[in-house]
Amino acid sequence: MIPLDAWLPDGISVETLALLVVAAFAAGWVDAVVGGGGLIQLPALLLVPQLAPVQALATNKLASICGTATSSVTYYRRVKPDLRTALPMAGLALLGSFAGAAVATVLPTAVFKPIIVLALAAVAIFVAVRPRLGAATSLRFEGRRHHFVAALLGIGIGFYDGMLGPGTGAFLVISLVSVVGYNFIAASAKAKIVNFATNLGALALFVPTGAVVWGLGLCLAVANVAGSYLGSRTAIAKGTGFVRVIFLCVSAALILKLGWDVWVETVAPMLR
């Protein structure tokens, strides 16, 4: 039974709610195009003083799973991604997210952030200097090897999502492009299905604890769904070149955000 006071945080203003809805719409659009919408939606929720961090995380996942479901269906209808690759990858990503969450309870995420920043910077440079990367599908593996590699990527990035989280969708897209050989549109279509699974895994942990603020989450879910639908339609219409540009922009934002976290959590205390 969900308590009535869980539907909306006490004292939240109409202006704050409106800003959160706008953030959720923008997050849905970015996430549908290339992933990384959590960079917009989650920080906005964390700025609401009425919400505890765990409530912000849980409510973010509720809105996000509605958006990823919408973009998954939209991509499936128009791109027809190969479910023989996407579904096993999604299942293993869900398991990986549970394992990552378990590790996060033992080791501080600050240990991993410098590695993630360097890896993301290397990936962004790699994409920037290879303009034809992801322009067309050219699979590097066949048969069982193809599915094995996709499964490894699913469990590895699912582990990252459970342990740390920011930019999971972007990592899924670029791994499917650079390692497996899909174009950006095909990679985005599969990434949405996998990202839906990782969000589902997180909600399976959050809902029983009562951490989800349902009223706020459902308001943001409506905006996220609208942004996801528009974003997936835009990506399909504009093509792989457009998705590549958005990927580089999101990667730059991720590098700045995680780099700042590393500075505040690790470097700055050492300089005091």
UniProtKB/TrEMBL annotation:
<feature type="transmembrane region" description="Helical">
    <location>
        <begin position="86"/>
        <end position="104"/>
    </location>
</feature>
<feature type="transmembrane region" description="Helical">
    <location>
        <begin position="110"/>
        <end position="129"/>
    </location>
</feature>
<keyword id="KW-0812">Transmembrane</keyword>
<dbReference type="Pfam" id="PF01925">
    <property type="entry name" value="TauE"/>
</dbReference>
<keyword id="KW-0813">Transport</keyword>
<feature type="transmembrane region" description="Helical">
    <location>
        <begin position="17"/>
        <end position="40"/>
    </location>
</feature>
<dbReference type="GO" id="GO:0005886">
    <property type="term" value="C:plasma membrane"/>
</dbReference>
<feature type="transmembrane region" description="Helical">
    <location>
        <begin position="149"/>
        <end position="182"/>
    </location>
</feature>
<keyword id="KW-1003">Cell membrane</keyword>
<keyword id="KW-1133">Transmembrane helix</keyword>
<comment type="similarity">
    <text>Belongs to the 4-toluene sulfonate uptake permease (TSUP) (TC 2.A.102) family.</text>
</comment>
<protein>
    <recommendedName>
        <fullName>Probable membrane transporter protein</fullName>
    </recommendedName>
</protein>
<dbReference type="InterPro" id="IPR052017">
    <property type="entry name" value="TSUP"/>
</dbReference>
<keyword id="KW-0472">Membrane</keyword>
<feature type="transmembrane region" description="Helical">
    <location>
        <begin position="202"/>
        <end position="230"/>
    </location>
</feature>
<dbReference type="InterPro" id="IPR002781">
    <property type="entry name" value="TM_pro_TauE-like"/>
</dbReference>
<feature type="transmembrane region" description="Helical">
    <location>
        <begin position="242"/>
        <end position="260"/>
    </location>
</feature>
